[in-house]
Every structure is written in structure tokens, then in C-alpha cells.
Amino acid sequence: MSKNKLADFLCFAIYSANLTFGKAYKPILDSLGLTYTQYITVIALYEESGQTVSELGEKLFLESNTLTPILKKLEAMGYVTRQRSAEDERQVLVGLTEKGRALRERAFGADLSEACGLTGEEFAETREAVLKLRNNLAKSLAR
Questions:
Q1: pLDDT in single tens digits along all 143 residues of the chain
Q2: What is the CATH number of domain 10-109?
Q3: Rounded CA separation 12/18 (Å)
Q4: Quick one: which of 129, 42, 50, 125 has its CA closest to 87?
Q5: Nearest to 100 by CA among 115, 125, 81, 123
Q6: pTM score, two decimals?
Q7: Collapsing DSSP states into helix, strand and coil, what is residue 73?
Q8: Interatomic CA distance for residues 106 and 59, integer angstroms
Q9: Which positions ≥6 away from 84 have C-beta within 8 Å?
């Protein structure tokens, strides 16, 4: 019986690539004073301000009990606002402040595309393959 080595597992390749991305992003994030989850939260809010916490959580694949402390910290830093929806007070709307928008604009150059060593086409193909994998796994969990 053939035994797969750790290096043969796709899940390990994805996991180790994620860890390496984290290390590569660390100097960028340190210069911004953010964690990775804070950084992607700011990016998502820059794209669409005024989202509910649950909409934002779905977009970031984060549960509200994980996202809420991130939002509280970003609010304390002056980057986001949180307010109850006038239409449904059970919902909290989240948006970027001017300071938060300025932070995202400052971070526009913080891109690791070149460090990945992929051509533009390879980068797009890899991204699409990873997204397809994620979406297929999510579908299988929903069954």
C-alpha cells in the first residue's frame, strides 16, 4: 500500500502557502499597524461601506464572534464606525472613516504579486483554481 507523503497533500500545500503569505505580508502589516484579518476587513469595507456585520462576515469567511472584536479594535483605532441600522436595530452597519479610507489608499501598493513569481496569467489562473477549490469545499460542507 502506497503512503502519501505530507508534501503530496493538497491541504498541506494550501496551509503552508497561507503561512508563507502571512510571513510575506508581516512587514507590510507591521508598517500599517494591522493584523491580516484587520487588513482584509479594511479592504472589504473600502470596496463597500455600510455593510452589516453578517454581510461582512460572509464576505470574509469569519463568524460574528470573530469579526466583532476585530471591528471593535478597528473602531478604537479610528478606522471604522459601527452603528445600529435605523430600519432594523438588530443589525449593525459598519463603514470606514476618512482615516480608514486613507489607510487603505496608503496600502494600495502593499501587493505581493511580484513576490509570487507568477506571470499575470499564472497569477489569475492560480487565484481562480484556489477559489474554485474553496467554493467546491464550501458546497460539500453545505450538503
A1: 557 899 899 999 999 999 998 898 898 889 889 999 999 999 999 999 889 999 999 999 999 899 999 999 999 999 999 998 788 888 889 999 999 999 988 877 666 777 788 888 998 999 999 999 999 998 999 88
A2: 1.10.10.10
A3: 10
A4: 50
A5: 81
A6: 0.85
A7: helix
A8: 23
A9: 91, 92, 93
